[in-house]
Amino acid sequence: MTIHPRYNFLPGTEITLLNRPMTVTGVTENGYSMVGCEDGAASVVTFDRLVEHLKLPGAKIDTAPAANGDRLKQRLGGYTSSKALKNPEQRALARYHTAMCKAVDIYAAKRREDDPRFEPSCRNLDHPEVRDFIAKQTSLLSGERVRIKPVRGGEKTGDRILYRGRTINEHYQRYKALNPGENAEDALVPLVHKRGNRKQRLCPRIRELMTEAWEHIGLDKKKTSVANVHQYLETLIHRENQFRTLNELPKFVTPSQKTLRQHRDTLVTHTEYLIATAGKREARRTRGRGSTDIRALSVGELCGMDEQKISMVVAAKKAGLWSSLSDDDKATLEAADQYIRKRLHIVILYDVASRMPLAWVITESPNAEATLALLRMASRDKTREQHRYGCMNEAAKGCGICYLRNDNGTGLRNSDVIGALMGLGTINGNTRTYSPEDRAPDERFLGTPESRFFKLMPGYTGRRVGELPGYDAIRNGVVDVETLYGMLTRYLIDEYPFERNYGVGMGGRRPWDVYQEINRTRGQFEHLDPNTRRIHLGWEVDATPSDEGVQVFSGIWFNSNDLQVARDEQFFKGKVRVFVDPDDLNIATVLMPGYRDPIEVHLQMTVFADMTLMEVLQLMAEYRREDPETSHIYHDRLMEVKNRRFSDISTIGVEHDLPRSYSTLEECKVMAEFVFSGARTIPSETLPGTTAPDAITDLGSGAGAAVFAIGDGDSVIDGTVDADPSESDSGITNPSDPAVVSDDPQEDPPSNASETRPSRKPKARKQGKKLARPRNLKELK
User: Fold this and answer.
1) Model's pTM, two decimal places?
2) What pLDDT is recorded for position 747?
3) Is the pLDDT of residue 58 over 70?
4) Average pLDDT over the chain, rounded to whole?
5) DSSP designation for 283
6) Burial class of residue 245 (count of CB atoms within 10 Å of its CB; 0-12, 13-18, 19+)
7) What DSSP letter does each residue of 509-556 carry, written as one string?
8) What are phi and psi of 255, to 5 degrees?
């Protein structure tokens, strides 16, 4: 069972519930009887509802009686303390009056040593020696110089003049009437803020018309000005004056624009007006509050990344293309370069804990390649940039990234970047669009280089359109990208880390000092595995491995013992995937299909050691670059020498009558026709009286059955051979050929060659005669 407490509120206690001030008039069986202070409506608040409402924010209870708790608040016109008053002179006078009353206490205590019944009064406080004593004590207590008489000659001074005895006594009596817990300054502060006529000078009808004008014209997404609202108000008052004229009433006077603006401030707040004219998103972006807690304690724990269009014009002339152009193209490009310019984007990644810049990239358009280059720079050492651009200090070392925060920029939020971050094990946090309060330090980090670096560069166009109307940014945009990147590198390494930073958690310390302190105390986030970094952030190339290794970018070779061993053990045939860090070509990573672990391969061309990929490509381009006229001369000479060599070879063959080792096209065609003419395939047949090799042992009945005798015998085949007249003229055999002579001496040789061939239809066997196999058979040609 829930017990609801019942409080003993005295009648007159003021309670504020749900932003509604009410006064308690009594307690009944059902609850508390209350009357609204603003509308006078009586209501009963039950005991349980009061308990629930007191838990909500904004609930207030003022149980102090008016005699001691709330009278000073009423005296100040609703202000809880005199320190909330706008006029600083009022607060200074309150401190002065308090010090003066304490000085009177000191004087009274000194007089009571001789006269215990002494009480300060207007007369005894007005003596010159008493006023002089009070002035000296007041000067010591308040820290201000207090005089008893003004300076002679009317000279202006900041010293305070002590009041006469009557005024001193009035302040002192008010000071002595304070109850315990009351502030003396609140009781002694002068009520200057209540001076003047506080009544409304405009009649309610004019205020209604002013409200109507703001609702119809002023609170609009087109962001109309006060002048537009004032013009519409004039039409409303003119129509109202016509009605008043008919009824013999005095006309209204149109209020000024300042009065109209002040009336708007009484209707809506600045935030409400911004929402009405600019929308919720812009109001949240402008008026939103960011977090003020310390988000990160270690380097790499939380990093911010943002892109911004550089408000600066740079030259658009491309290096490396000049030598390949003709004279006419060069002249055209020189003329076009005078007015062709480009604006670039800067992408920066920095550490939130130390405010140190970790990477920076300048690109023509924000894309995935620029962001991946930014991540590669943040996770590697930047010694090359230090030496190349002549930096005096050290940059932040490479580290891993635990949590990366970015917005919805096209180059920051895409599938390639998100996939790479997931592969690296980095948490990717996407903030809301047009919500800088979500990432206030990131926006501030780009604002500092904008105001301190780019604003001083030639070609600066300003932060908004038309900011520099008298400056010709196109004509002054003579800085190329390489020079701009070098100056930006020196600024982010030598200047920015050594300037005081007053961001949340920095406390005016320098980023370089904070970076060193974190390294000593907490350390950086763990470094990325080199193979994992190359696989997810490097450039991928498909290559066929060989005994020489793998070749990428048409001339850069990598190889290692591990690659060759894996290639032999896997019997691998095909292409492998090679991942190269364009900023470091010393080592690459190979992924072989069917092989689990990544394979590290080393650069085989030592001339490219410690060079970036772009430097290698530029070096090879310089090697191959030559003057077009020189190339034409070399080509003519080379063709002349080759023609001479071929002529010498032909002359040697003619002089020595050497046979040709080649055939002409016509000869090949004739030989092909001769070889393939009349050629056909003759199928093989089983000779009558014989059997196929695979049916020699077949004992079944058939055409070839019982051809060979089973058992002992003198002959292989029993039977005679009849001559075929159709084959007598074939010229295949010769009658006098001894090959047709039988081995049996009792048998006569055949009379002609045709008798040596058996007939297609065998005749019946003759008993007692056997035909032996012919000897010395010749092949047919």
Assistant:
1) 0.62
2) 45
3) yes
4) 81
5) H
6) exposed
7) --HHHHHHHHHHHT-BPPPPPHHHHHHHHSEEEEE--BTTBEEETTTE
8) -65, 160
